[in-house]
Structure prediction request, 176 residues.
Amino acid sequence: MRFLIVMLASLLLCPMAPAVAQVDVPGYPRMVAVARSPVYFDPGSASNYFFYDGMYWVYEADVWYTGSWFNGPWTVVAPLAVPVYLLRVPVRFYRNRPAYFRGWNPDEPPRWGDHWGTQWERQRRGWDRWEPTSVPRPAPLPVYQRQYEGNRYPAAELQATLQDRNYPYKSQHDMR
Prediction:
């Protein structure tokens, strides 16, 4: 519930139209689980492309985007609303690393507090500390979307209907 409130606040502060992320996925991505995490990543992508809790996530040009379909449309997500498990993904899983990642340990998460500042860090206190035994199970991948590659990719208006019909998973997201 807390995530939904933050996500809604994030959407109110950002443009309501879908955002244009610089990601064009030619086909259904090959998602691989990040070890000891409920997050998947696409090792073949040139983008920072992830899947977590039933949603695709992209980090490009210092902006987080999310969408329920593998090639968008994308919605901008404010840094305060990014789920902690995405923030905890080690640097090595970012395919297109920003310059400010240079010198950071590839086996540790990015230093988001260094990048986004002390106000962000105060509001997201504890994001970088967790008990590995309490990590939730990864959400199932929406493999039904594979049949909608290329010119079969559905218009945004049809995506929600197809998702409701074919993907029964409901978000387990929590900001803790």
